[in-house]
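Feature request disguised as a bug: please show the residue count (225) next to U1 small nuclear ribonucleoprotein 70 kDa in the output. Example input:
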Amino acid sequence: MTSKLPPDLLNLFSPRPPLPYAKPLDKDIDKRKGPQISGISSFIDLLKTEPNPNYSPSETPIQKKERLNYQVSERDLKREFERYGPILAVKLIKDKAGNSRGYAFLEYENERDLRVAYRESDGVRIMGKRVVVDVERGRTVKGWLPRRLGGGLGGTRIGGVNENHTYSGRYDPAVNDKNPPAPSSYPSSRVISRKRDYSGPDSSRDYKRERGSSRGDSRSRPSNG
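Example output, currently without the count:
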């Protein structure tokens, strides 16, 4: 059919010339040889580290001073604190070598005995060392936050040397506040003046009664002349 077209129209259907050959810049991805990728199992041994047997976590001087004597046993603690009431359990915290860490946990059978021990035993000496006695707050106080989250009751990192907690015993911010608010910031006492309402049906009678009592008081008042 196209053979019967005139030459000027046949030129419109003629194929284009082939593209010139260009040398490829890179090898075929199937023939390319790159670095060999292997697993990391051969490097696991290089990442193993032995724990330092002499590692000692950072502690403040107050924590070092107000800890239990390392010679204190659970029996000694029970004998010392059962004077306030029957004890349910005593747990002395020890390290991997079985040595005391300097603190322990006691559980009383009655909450009343716990309150007495909390109030009376703070700062007592056990085998020549004063101890700090406190209660658990993480599971007992609603909304409690530890020191690392901005809460806590510790007083060893308040500010400078003259502001930090340096004596034996617990630190209570309500008692040990060294910067009390200015007197102008305290709430002033409220003076409430109450006035009788004389809008009721007996208003005139009550009003006359009160006026009469006030006049009687003024008349009976002695003069200074």
